[in-house]
Amino acid sequence: MEREVIQSVGFRNIKENGEITGFQFKIRLPYYRGVFLSQLRPGTLFIDGERIEKEDIIWNVKGEDFTVEQMKTDFQTHWDVTCPATLKVKKPGGLAQGYHDLKYGFCFTSSYMPPIIQAHLDPDKENMVFMPEFGHHVNERRMIIV
After folding, report:
1. SS3 for 72?
2. Complete domains list, the chain, with CATH
3. What is the H or E stretch that residue 36 is in?
4. Per-residue tens of pLDDT for the chain, all 146 residues
């Protein structure tokens, strides 16, 4: 895995039944312990400045697909630090060949952090208090589709 949260490997368009229905990219968890899916707070994706809503993203963890709603109540599936997640984005026609700017944030709750602090986590805004290792980070990366 790369040091960056947004991984360069796996960035490509998704083709289903001969049609390009979207694109995908991989992210790694910057937290050493891993988290259960119910702990995640996915943010909004921006691709070349275009806003993609959370409902248009499917998380694939350990080969299984999850919507944001399903993740909220999944207390069994654990996302390990050594296993990148693939985010599948619904976007008819996918992305054009060339460079694209991705911006994506997510955060997660931790049992040892006071609830009053965690209640104010916003996955779409950088937090000046928390480092990525403690559950929050907005990630940006320029990627290429060939």
Report:
1. helix
2. 6-145 (2.60.40)
3. strand 35-36
4. 898 999 999 999 999 999 999 999 999 998 888 999 999 989 989 999 999 999 999 999 999 999 999 999 999 999 999 999 999 999 999 999 999 999 998 988 777 766 666 666 777 776 655 555 555 578 899 999 98
Give exposure, 29-52, as e/b (b: 16+ Cβ within 10 Å): bbbeeebebebbbbbbbbbeeeeb
pTM: 0.88
Query: Which structure tokens are listed for 70?
Result: 């399903």
CA-closest candidate to residue 43, choices 117, 99, 121:
121
For residue 61, give the nearest of 44, 79, 73, 40 by alpha carbon.
79
φ, ψ for residue 117, nearest 5 deg: -75, -45
User: How many Cα atoms sit within 13 Å of 140 on the Cβ side?
Assistant: 7
